[in-house]
Write a structure and sequence with these properties.
Elements: H1 3-32, H2 36-44, H3 50-58, E1 71-73, E2 78-79, H4 80-90, H5 95-102, H6 112-121
Antiparallel strand pairs: 1-2
Length: 122
């Protein structure tokens, strides 16, 4: 096989693989997207509370869940309120326990100092 034909074949394989990944990711985004009705209700409201503004800006419907608070763990979108509730309710004592329950602190580790401070305050 000539080198030009090999390059075209490699390009075709790369394109098929890339579009497969994009199709899968796009499908996940579509499935998790809020409904048009929910968006219309928010845009039709005269005023939004903090949870509704956060949900609108993040593109994720709140679905009646408690406000997670300021995001502490960006990798897994774990908020301050959620961390404090779990630490207080379940008497968590270590970052490992927090990670096992909420996954916070188990990826990049940038949030571990804040999680340790929350555990120390509890």
């Amino acid at each position: 096989m000539s080198s030009t034909k090999k390059l075209w074949t490699l390009l075709a394989v790369l394109l098929v693989a890339s579009f497969s990944v994009l199709l899968r990711s796009g499908n996940q985004i579509y499935q998790n997207a809020p409904t048009v009705q929910w968006l219309a209700e928010l845009f039709g409201a005269n005023e939004l509370d903090a949870a509704e503004r956060t949900a609108l800006l993040s593109g994720a419907a709140n679905n009646g869940q408690a406000d997670p608070g300021r995001i502490i763990c960006s990798c897994f979108a774990v908020g301050l309120n959620r961390l404090n509730d779990a630490i207080a309710t379940l008497a968590l004592k270590s970052t490992e326990e927090v990670g096992a329950l909420l996954r916070a602190g188990t990826n990049c580790g940038a949030c571990l100092p804040e999680i340790r401070a929350l555990l120390a305050e509890a």
